[in-house]
Amino acid sequence: MAGRNTSPTSIASTLSNITVPTNQPSEARSFHSASPPMSTPPTSLGDETSILSDTTKMDQMLQVQEEVSTPHVPPQAQPAPPSTPAVPSSESRRPARSSRKSVTTYNVQILAGTAIHTPTKYLQKHHGNVLHGPINSVRQKHTATPPKKRTPRLKRESVDSDDAAEAQLATEAAQAAQRRTSARFDLRKEVLRNSTVVGEPESSGRDTSQTTLRRSASDSRLGRSSQSRLPSPKRPRTSKDAELAGAADTEEEEDIKPKKKQWMNQGLYVGQDRDFDARLSESQNRAKKRASKKGEGTVLPLPMFAGERMLDAEVKTAFRNFRLPFDTYHPLPRKVKVDGWVKLHKNRFIGEASALWKRDKQDSSQCYCTPEDGCGEACHNRIMAYECDSTNCRLPADECGNRPFAQLKQRSKGNGYDYGVEVLETEDRGFGVRAMRTFEPHQIIVEYAGEIITQNECERRMKQVYKKDKCYYLMSFDNKMIIDATRGTIARFVNHSCEPNCEMIKWTVSGEPRMALFAGSRGIMTGDELTYDYNFDPFSSKNIQECRCGAKNCRGVLGPKPKKPPLQEEKPTTSLLAGAKRKFQEVFGSGKRSESAPNSPKKRKGVPYMANSALTKLQNAQAETTAVRQKAEQEAARAAAQKNDRKNRLMQRGASTVTITSRRSAVVRRGTRAYTPNLTSTRKTTVNLKRSAPPKPGALKSIKKSLLKRASASASAKRGIPPNPKREADTTPDRDMLPSDSEQVSASDADDDDDDDDDDSMAFPDSDDEYNDEQQEREQELAREFAAVKASAKKRGAGAAMGAMAAAAAAARGLQKTGAGVKKGFARFRR
Ligand SMILES: C[S@@+](CC[C@H](N)C(=O)[O-])C[C@H]1O[C@@H](n2cnc3c(N)ncnc32)[C@H](O)[C@@H]1O
After folding, report:
1. Whether residue 107 is found in the same domain as residue 12
2. Looking at the record, which segments are called Disordered (predicted)?
């Protein structure tokens, strides 16, 4: 505290100190003491007057007073140099040391704990740029070394101060100030360097640096950085400077790294449907949108997506639950790596498969949709599962809604989220596939592509290539072909569910077979696992796999529940005829296909194929027979119901003879008479196709042909179309094929015959079907095949025959029905 006695007082220090007078009268002390009444170090660096003056303000005041009052008193001593102890000019003015001691001074900063009391040693060590120690030594140091530009104020303080302790305190204060301005310090340093770069002398001092700082304050950080990276040829560098500059440069370079702006390329609405036509490019879509916007009013647009949904007339799309898009809620999307999966993006025909496909490829499809239809639900191509293209559809691509594979191709050009599926690892079913976006009901999701192989090739692979494998990715595809997706698309990982959300459907695209996974009628939400019903046929009990789909109605096993006794009990003839009956019912419109949704595409569902090398052809045939038998039973039940219905109607009419239909009577009669447009025939003719002996191959065909033609003529007549004489002639049945009079039976006989329907009679529908040429052709084709199959059945024995017949039926229809008459089996055996 001794040092403080001589210190000047500033306003700041006055405010921050409380002085408690003790024994001395204040007046005396004010006027008779040379020492100031308040004695504190400068607390403000702005108080330069106080700091720089050798004498205190109070001393100066007293001196003036004394000069006025005692002009003759000569000064006894000149002010001593700072290094020597000051000689008091008057004893009376300088209070005794003891009296000065008696004045207690409190520093509020100290009391408040805000004063800085850092050990000097520490400061010297860690803050080299701050002055420490007795002022003299500091001064000496300063005169020896060139002034540092960073602490100009401090430098002056230290030069002018005599008191070591005061210097120490000043140092502390400066340090505090420095700490406060530390954030700005780097910037200043950099500005100084910049000024050097542009040729300004570094030693131009604080003013220059501040000017420069101000000037460059508005510079962008990046610009500054690039400037500072330039070499400064004018600047002579000492080794220390170079070191410092080097360090600074490295620091800067770290800072400088151009920060690349990160753009979010996926957002809240990813995967949500937007007004985007996948067949067009981005720019085409934009152009289309612009064009459509021209006519728009000025009303604010509806809320994106939600508005569209809310106004959607279809309840199922309007009230779909909202879920956050997958990339928003999914914590850590990670890519699952699957060993041994060779990706193929499109089908590849292997070996004879291509030739086989071309040879068997006979059918084609054509649609006549108008732009208003837009190839919607009624599109013929769509129903037949043919993709429209320029060869079979008149509409331009952007007006046609039946080009799913083209849409998929467009989507695959986008990003992963656009494509929309990824592999996931399930808990208990190996890998699976999950949606990364939403899919509309029946929208194409992913193609099941791989190598298309023949059955022979499949068997070879099973025996030789996949002998040791546990997993097979084989999908029955066409009558004689299999898709082996061991090398294939991601679709091979789609798992089975008894309550699936997707369907695997076969399509024909530009004349080529393609298979793809389509969303089910509920659509798919982001994050859902994709599943379809394998209808897995394990062929043998040892291959039965437990199903872990977790659905409420889970069947417990992959594939249909085994419920029927062994096949040996099957009566070959019964099966044959039941199968025949089924086929004809399908052709005549009462089959299962016509019962399914009329407007939905013909579903040629994909069935997993399990080609077990141990299976013989006979086993295949037996398996097919089971399926055929089940179907036949269903058909028989339906036929029985129809028969009962007919009986009831006859009973009600009280007819004595059997009338199959008046239409049919007319058809039969028309063959022998002139055509009468008005077909209100009163004569009732009975047609019984029951024969005591099975027809010769070809005979059945003829009967059917003539009957069908007659039916067609009848339908035309009903519509008022005049008869075609040529056709009329054609419709004349072969005499020997027509039922003879002797074959006309009474009602009771007919009833009896009806009872035998299931065995060997043809079941014709009662409805007034309208036959067109296409149907006729199909039916003829079917009849031909049927005859051939029947003949082969006789040769080969029942089991194999049933397989062949089922296959023929499937071929004739161009269908591959799930679980019926086709080979199947997906393949992953976990034995
Ligand atoms: C074509 S693979 C599907 C992908 C397969 N999970 C994988 O990891 O490669 C078919 C096999 O997956 C398994 N799997 C599929 N769905 C299943 C289900 N619902 N329950 C149990 N296993 C299933 C069976 O082992 C089946 O043989």
Report:
1. yes
2. 1-103, 131-177, 196-264, 587-607, 631-782
Residue 498, ligand 1, Cβ within 6 A: no
Cβ pair 445, 278 in contact under 8 A? no
Q: Which of 50, 79, 112 is the last residue of a domain?
A: 112
Q: Flag whether 33 is in a domain.
A: yes
Number of separate domains in the chain: 2
Question: Model confidence over 24-61: pLDDT tens digits?
Answer: 433 333 333 333 333 333 333 333 333 334 444 444 44
User: Of 489 and 768, which is predicted with more confidence?
Assistant: 489
493 lines ligand 1 (CB under 6 A): yes
Residue 472 within any structural domain of the chain: no
How many whole angstroms separate alpha carbon 223 and alpha carbon 575? 88
Question: Which residue, of 218, 237, 256, is where some domain finishes?
Answer: 256
Inter-helix orientation angle 617-653/747-755, to 10°: 150
Whether ligand 1 lies within 6 angstroms of the CB of 547 is answered as yes
Name the nearest CA neighbour of 319 among 500, 522, 552: 522
> 57 lies in which domain range?
2-112
Look up tokens 């071929």; give the residue.
811
Tell me how far the alpha carbon of residue 430 lies from the centroid of ligand 1, in angstroms: 6
pLDDT value of position 288:
86
Instruction: Mark whether 199 and 107 lie in a shared domain.
Output: no
> Is the beta carbon of 610 within 6 A of some atom in ligand 1?
no
pLDDT above 90 for 263: no
495, 532, 539, 831: which to mutate for ligand 1, most atoms within 8 A of CB? 495
CB of 154 shorter than 6 A to ligand 1: no
Nearest atom, ligand 1, residue 498 CA: 19
Q: Are 821 and 806 in contact (CB under 8 A)?
A: yes
Atom 11 (ligand 1): residue with closest C-alpha?
828
419 Cα to the center of ligand 1, angstroms: 23
**Does pLDDT of 757 surpass 60?**
no
Q: Is 492's C-beta closer than 6 angstroms to any atom of ligand 1?
A: yes
Q: Is residue 741 part of a domain?
A: no
Residue-wise DSSP of 374-396 = TS-TT-HHHHTTB---TTT--S-
Distance CA 155, CA 148 (A): 8
447 vs 477: CA distance, rounded Å: 13
* Residue that is written with structure tokens 């691509």 in the block: 397
The pTM of this model reads 0.40
Pocket test for ligand 1, best of 484, 542, 828 (most atoms within 8 A of CB): 828
Instruction: Please work out whether the CB of residue 40 comes within 6 Å of at least one atom of ligand 1.
Output: no
CA-to-CA dists, residue 778 to 84, 358, 702, angstroms: 130, 20, 14
Q: Measuring from atom 4 of ligand 1, which residue has the nearest CA?
A: 493
Give pLDDT, residue 276.
74
In this structure, is residue 468 part of a structural domain? Answer: no
Please tell me what DSSP assigns to residue 565. Answer: P
Same domain, residue pair 106 and 207: no
Angle in degrees, 0-180, between the axes of helices 617-653 and 798-813, rounded to the nearest 10: 70
Q: Say how far apart CA 488 and CA 210 lie, in whole Å.
A: 70
CA of 498 to the centre of ligand 1 (A): 13
